[in-house]
Amino acid sequence: MKIIPAVDIRGGKVVQLVGGKPGTERFAIEDATGIARRWQDDGAEIIHIIDLDSAMGVGNNEELIENIIGALSIPVQVGGGIRTAEKVHRLFEIGCERVIMGTRAIQERSFAEEMSRQYPDGIVVALDSVADKVLIKGWQESSGKDTYAVAKDIETLPIWGFLFTNVEVEGRLEGIDPIYIEKFMNTTRKPVIVSGGITTRADIETLQQMGVDSVVVGMAIYTGRINFRRVVREFS
Predict the structure, then answer these.
(1) Strand boundaries in the chain, DSSP class E
(2) Is residue 131 over pLDDT 90?
(3) How far apart are CA 216 and CA 101, in angstroms?
(4) CA-wise closest residue to 100 among 166, 146, 148, 54
């Protein structure tokens, strides 16, 4: 199982939000490239970058993301506000290993199909969920669609797999909701990356036992609740 560090970028800085809500940043770190290099040096096999400005429709950090990719020797997966074919193409052109699509892929299945057929096994579909419904537009709105029904439908496409986030526990350092995750794991045969609420080594162990492909850790490694280097050695 891969332990993937989160590098969430807002206004050119690395931040972590509580429940995805602007204004809840626990910290803001200027050197995003240096942070990504640090996780690489600590044993990361892939870096998870989310462009929060793009996700929320208030700008983008594409130039910075390109710089980060160029500074690393490990793969990068990128998400946040990826709602056009042009943006998908550009991200692969600058060296992304996987592109994470949410809003438009949920609203227009045909877009997810088109992109996944152009980049088979390169597209990850993000299912950010609250009360079994998928959120869209940077977690600001509900799509009204059932999380599990969407997964069953989209898994038939040549996507790599899913990024499943329980938004209700995201950034709160209160642990995961294993029942919720297990329900999702039983819904799809595609690989699943889990994020949201991962706070302790025990959370990671539970997810490993469920057969999760990868976990994204954010707030816990930035606050020292999880020693990233240690868990990478233990679980990877």
Answers:
(1) 2-10, 13-15, 28-29, 47-51, 76-79, 98-101, 123-130, 133-136, 141-146, 161-166, 192-195, 214-217
(2) no
(3) 16
(4) 54
CA 211-213-218 angle, to 5 degrees, is 115
Is there a contact between 199 and 175 (Cβ–Cβ < 8 Å)? yes
Write down the catalytic residue from 8, 51, 53, 203: 8
Q: How many CB atoms lie within 10 A of CB 232?
A: 19
Tell me the mean pLDDT in the region 36-58: 96
**pLDDT of 118 over the 90 cut:** yes
Q: Which residue has the tokens 């509580």?
A: 18
Is 128 annotated in the active site?
A: yes
Q: Is 8 in the active site? A: yes
85 neighbors 116 (Cβ within 8 angstroms): no
pTM of the predicted model over 0.85: yes
Q: Are 214 and 1 in contact (CB under 8 A)?
A: yes
Q: What is the C-alpha separation between 174 and 195, in angstroms, rounded?
A: 13
The rounded mean pLDDT for the chain is 94
| DSSP-based helix, strand, coil % in the chain, nearest 5 | 40, 25, 35
pLDDT of 174: 84
As a whole number, mean pLDDT of residues 86-106 equals: 96
- Split at pLDDT 50, 70, 90, the class of 105 is very high
Of 51, 53, 128, 203, the active-site residue reads 128
**Domains of the chain (ranges plus CATH)?**
2-235 (3.20.20.70)
Unique residue bearing structure tokens 């889990």: 194
